[in-house]
Amino acid sequence: MAEADRDLDHYGWPSIILHWIGAAALVASFLTGEGLEGVSGDALQAAYANHVFWATLLAVPLIARIVWRMRKGFAVTAHQNRWLHLLSRVVMIGFFVSIFAAVLSGILLPWSIGAALDIGPITIPSPMPVSPAFHSFLESAHGVSSHLWLPLLLLHVLGALKHGIIDRDGALRGIFWPLGEGGSPPKR
Q: What is the pLDDT of residues 104-154, one digit of tens each?
């Protein structure tokens, strides 16, 4: 167990807030990206601009969440079967890798064809040479990484429900409210 690992009673407000902002950012980025399907012409350009704006803006809390979790370590649950603990880590690392890959490939996509990255009123010119082969790779990487989190989300939710319904160890409550002694929110 790494030094950075924490018990469940160490989920504080920063972790909880970053978790839920990151979750909302992930869903918003996904939905604006999915909104590009079946759209053409001016509507496609508007939908693409909307996706790039929100996905880039929301990349900030997503990356902050990843950095925060990597610095703080992963929560350790009491009496967790080692294979379930390993699965939990694999799911979380999978989330982080897929999010990072989606953000990075999304930023590089317009640049790989020599286009600027337009984030609302901000235009960032391409710092790289045009590469159709790299662009094709980035399109595939962005498509895969942008959808990889869906089965991981299902496993994450099932794990949270297991902790809340079967284990009753406070893990599920702890992501909504910082846990005090005994695994319950502090009384006021």
A: 999 999 999 999 998 888 899 999 999 999 999 999 999 999 999 899 999
Phi and psi angles of residue 79, each rounded to the nearest 5 degrees, phi first: 60, 30
Long-range contacts of 90-97 (CB under 8 A, 24+ apart): 91/152, 91/155, 91/156, 91/159, 92/156, 94/148, 94/149, 94/152, 95/149, 95/152, 95/153, 95/156, 96/66, 96/69, 96/70, 97/145
Per the structure, the complete domain to which residue 166 belongs is given by: 6-183
Strand 117-119 and strand 6-7: the pairing is unpaired
Q: Is residue 16 part of a domain?
A: yes
Q: What local confidence, expressed as pLDDT, does residue 9 receive?
A: 45
C-beta separation of 179 from 185 below 8 A: yes
- In this predicted structure, the answer to whether residue 24 has a pLDDT above a threshold of 50 is yes
As a whole number of angstroms, the distance between CA 9 and CA 170 comes to 9
Whether residue 186 is predicted with pLDDT greater than 60 in this model: the reply is no
Q: Would you say residue 58 lies in a domain?
A: yes
